[in-house]
Amino acid sequence: MKLSKTDPGGDIAMDMTPMIDVTFQLIIFFMLLMDMSTKELEDLVLPKAEKADPDKPNPADQRAVVNITADGRVLVKRDVLYDPKNDDGYVKLKEFLFQKARLMPKAKTEAGGMAPDKPILVRADQATPFKYIQKVMELCGDQKIQIWKIELAAAEVAKDAGSGAAAGGN
After folding, report:
1. Mean model confidence pLDDT for the chain
2. Which H or E run includes 155?
3. Where are the domains of the chain?
4. How far apart are CA 144 and CA 68, in angstroms?
5. Phi, psi angles (nearest 5°) of residue 25
6. Is residue 65 classed as helix, strand or coil in its secondary structure?
7. Where are the extended beta strands (E) located within 39-100?
8. What is the pLDDT of residue 40?
9. Which of 16, 84, 113, 133 is most buried per CB count within 10 Å?
10. Which residue, among 53, 47, 79, 83, has the nearest Cα to 64 in the 3D structure?
């Protein structure tokens, strides 16, 4: 029997194509993931506040974010739930809030009942007529929904005097 001899000191070539493919797949995955995380926030000009707490939500909590544009449209995750041009009586918004309230963890109220314990975030453009914000708040307090904790988003006024620009915001 004849055995073949190989050169033990020879270079072994490594194919880098699979490694490059995996790297590109990871880049695409993270780009898509970053896009999904900003999907809840509409591009709004928030009203400015002299004093505002920074928005630091717990990533484990799935907080509902309701956006109200200057023309009165109510959006959640880029989905229009109410449009004043096609007034449907807030049917989609009521259904969304009802489902959110049902899925939220409950806490005992002073009256002895159970109500959602987590807040929702209402973001409204500074040019939004108050009647649209008021309607969202009324729907949250509806007997079937009972979301009692609401956070309102605002942009913080810059600390340096005279600039008048927003320093950032919720």
Report:
1. 79
2. strand 155-157
3. 48-158
4. 22
5. -65, -40
6. strand
7. 48-49, 65-68, 74-76, 79-82
8. 65
9. 133
10. 79
